[in-house]
């Protein structure tokens, strides 16, 4: 039981004993820096149950705690805030309990029930771009945080490998490719295929312009441009199983998969299972038919099938076209059900998809609930905002997309430029420098994106993200490297750094650092409950700020008292371990030297 749980129980006992009423909850917050104390109980919410002056109420509760709780050594009341001082012994006992825990803060798997986290879900007609970067970083990090909170997790994606957009790239390659391949061009497969998506759009626009100059209406030209009609015919052939078209589709998709694999590896994300739209786009139709029989859906005169969600504040939504073909909603219904069939332990899913799809997922989740699936109550849309660069928006059809590979390479170069300016890497080999630049650059990118609440739109500034000061990845990485330097120097002193220390007093900065460490397990749980890597990122920044304040105010290796010196080295080591663990949940590496 942590100190907040102990105090909650005792504050309730105090209120019952003194005021003869039961208090349902107790609100705590960290004590403000300008007041004495370690944790603060807020009196104002209690006034709904206890009538009186908040200062007097706080004084009475505070005295009860001081008399009844061994860990409470003092208290003071400021207006409606009861500031409670906790004994040094409590924090020293806490540290001794976690000092050798390798996985401090991580909960063991508490249930056989699993959660499936979907992220990435790209199209196979172009490379991954900046939007995919935020998607992948969020999805991967949320999956890791859920695992750390004690959940069983499957990471998955559905690859959008069919449709007219895929056929556009295929047709353009047939027309303009001259048989070139990733091997013959030296290009990653996703980039090669993406270039033909751009080539299609260029040829399409040229045909439209020619048709308009010949007196054809623009709207008609857009629908009847020969290259578009040919792409539509190619899609029909694919759906009919035409051998030549299917073979080309398989070949070009494989080029893209191979390219994606390289990007994912460089980004540091992975998946447990893959789903392909070409295998799932017909799923769901049987469930629509079943729902029609049970009155969940209804059929219009033209034969199309709909659901009426107006009673839930939404609108009517089509789930099957009049010709019997599926819409995206049909497919998503079927895919969700198929995933649970494939993994019967899945009792919830997280969909990492941009906020433009908010409405779609409200409808999807409601439909699955109405179809009677219990796990549909535990579906969550991890909605996120767009990422902008100072140069403006991205348009993939025009080839102005911010390519994920190029962005990561640019981040590595930016880290190299700034590190060279700081001039701290003289004794590094060329290979060591390059690896370090990559760790710093990717760490900067990931932290900059993940420290922001997912729902907020981001303006990403590469140079700002690689700043070695402030709330940035490199600043936190640098602090970790500083701790490793302290540990290396401590080992050179040939002292036993693993022994327990008999201390009774704590420096104020030591105590503040221990209080921050104590928050790590509950921060993981809170981040899991809110699907928010930002909580982990900003916790880590607060921990690092606290450590740097400790480092600047307290001598570590220069301390004359051997017990204190060893304790401070142990404390620094634990902070380093927590930084590494927290950054691991964000998919960020930490270097031993910088």
From TrEMBL:
Keyword hit for Ion transport: no
Superkingdom as given in the UniProt entry: Bacteria
Main location: cytoplasm
EC number(s) reported in the record: 6.1.1.19
InterPro entries recorded: aa-tRNA-synth_I_CS (IPR001412), Arg-tRNA-ligase (IPR001278), Arg-tRNA-synth_N (IPR005148), Arg-tRNA-synth_N_sf (IPR036695), ArgRS_core (IPR035684), DALR_anticod-bd (IPR008909), Rossmann-like_a/b/a_fold (IPR014729), tRNAsynth_Ia_anticodon-bd (IPR009080)
Gene3D superfamilies assigned: Arginyl tRNA synthetase N-terminal domain, HUPs, Isoleucyl-tRNA Synthetase, Domain 1
SMART domains found in the cross-reference section: Arg_tRNA_synt_N, DALR_1
DALR anticodon binding domain location: 476-594
Subcellular locations according to the entry: Cytoplasm
Record field: catalytic activity: tRNA(Arg) + L-arginine + ATP = L-arginyl-tRNA(Arg) + AMP + diphosphate
ATP-binding among keywords: yes
Domain Arginyl tRNA synthetase N-terminal: 5-86
UniProt KW keywords: Aminoacyl-tRNA synthetase, ATP-binding, Coiled coil, Cytoplasm, Ligase, Nucleotide-binding, Protein biosynthesis
Parts forming coiled coils: 483-510
Motif placement: 'HIGH' region: 122-132
Subunit structure: Monomer.
PANTHER family on file: ARGININE--TRNA LIGASE, CYTOPLASMIC (PTHR11956:SF5), ARGINYL-TRNA SYNTHETASE (PTHR11956)
Protein family according to the UniProt entry: Belongs to the class-I aminoacyl-tRNA synthetase family.
Listed HAMAP family: Arg_tRNA_synth
Name of the protein in its database record: Arginine--tRNA ligase
Source species of the chain: Arenibacter algicola
The organism's taxonomic lineage, starting at the top: Bacteria, Pseudomonadati, Bacteroidota, Flavobacteriia, Flavobacteriales
């Amino acid at each position: 039981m942590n100190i907040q749980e102990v105090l909650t129980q005792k504050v309730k006992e105090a209120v019952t004993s003194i005021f003869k009423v039961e208090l349902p909850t107790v609100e705590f917050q960290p004590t403000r820096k300008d007041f004495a104390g370690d944790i603060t109980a807020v009196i104002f919410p209690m006034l709904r149950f206890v009538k009186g002056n908040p200062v007097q109420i706080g004084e009475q509760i505070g005295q009860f705690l001081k008399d009844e709780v061994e860990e409470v050594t003092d208290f003071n009341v400021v207006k409606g805030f009861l500031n409670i001082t906790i004994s040094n012994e409590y924090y020293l006992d806490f540290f001794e309990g976690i000092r050798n825990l390798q996985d401090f803060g991580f909960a063991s798997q508490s249930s056989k029930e699993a959660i499936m986290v979907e992220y990435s879900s790209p199209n196979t007609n172009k490379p991954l771009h900046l939007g995919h970067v935020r998607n992948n970083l969020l999805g991967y990090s949320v999956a890791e945080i859920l695992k750390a909170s004690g959940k069983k997790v499957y990471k998955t994606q559905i690859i959008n490998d069919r449709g007219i957009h895929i056929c556009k790239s295929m047709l353009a390659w047939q027309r303009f490719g001259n048989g070139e391949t990733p091997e013959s061009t030296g290009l990653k497969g996703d980039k090669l295929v993406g270039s033909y998506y751009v080539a299609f759009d260029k040829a399409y626009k040229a045909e439209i312009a020619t048709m308009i100059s010949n007196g054809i209406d623009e709207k008609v030209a857009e629908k009847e441009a020969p290259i578009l009609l040919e792409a539509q015919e190619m899609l029909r052939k694919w759906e009919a199983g035409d051998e030549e078209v299917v073979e080309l589709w398989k070949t070009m998709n494989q080029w893209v998969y191979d390219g994606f694999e390289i990007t994912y590896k460089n980004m540091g994300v992975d998946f447990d299972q893959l789903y392909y739209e070409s295998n799932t786009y017909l799923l769901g139709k049987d469930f629509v038919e079943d729902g029609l029989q049970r009155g969940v859906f209804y059929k219009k005169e033209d034969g199309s099938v709909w659901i009426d969600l107006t009673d839930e504040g939404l609108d009517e939504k089509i789930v099957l076209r009049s010709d019997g073909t599926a819409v995206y909603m049909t497919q998503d219904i079927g895919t969700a059900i198929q995933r649970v069939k494939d993994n019967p332990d899945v009792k919830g899913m997280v969909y990492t998809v941009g906020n433009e799809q908010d409405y779609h997922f409200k409808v999807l989740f409601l439909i699955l609930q109405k179809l009677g699936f219990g796990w549909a109550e535990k579906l969550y849309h991890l909605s996120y905002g767009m990422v902008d660069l100072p140069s403006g928006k991205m348009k993939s059809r025009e080839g102005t997309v911010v390519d994920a590979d190029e962005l990561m390479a640019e981040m590595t170069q930016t880290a190299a430029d700034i590190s060279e300016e700081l001039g701290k890497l003289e004794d590094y080999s060329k290979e060591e420098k390059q690896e370090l630049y990559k760790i710093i650059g990717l760490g900067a990118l990931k932290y900059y994106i993940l420290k922001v609440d997912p729902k907020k739109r981001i303006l990403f500034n590469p140079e700002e993200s690689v700043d070695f000061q402030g709330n940035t990845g490199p600043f936190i990485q640098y602090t970790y490297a500083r701790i490793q330097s302290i540990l290396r120097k401590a080992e050179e002193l040939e002292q036993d750094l693993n022994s327990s220390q008999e201390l009774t007093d704590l420096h104020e900065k030591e105590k503040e650092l221990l209080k921050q460490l104590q928050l790590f397990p509950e921060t993981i749980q809170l981040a899991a409950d809110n699907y928010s890597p930002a909580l982990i990122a900003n916790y880590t920044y607060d921990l690092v700020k606290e450590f740097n304040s400790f480092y600047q105010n307290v001598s570590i290796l220069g301390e004359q008292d051997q017990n204190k010196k060893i304790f401070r080295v142990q404390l620094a080591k634990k902070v380093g371990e927590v930084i590494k663990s927290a950054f691991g949940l964000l998919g960020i590496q930490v270097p031993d030297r910088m």
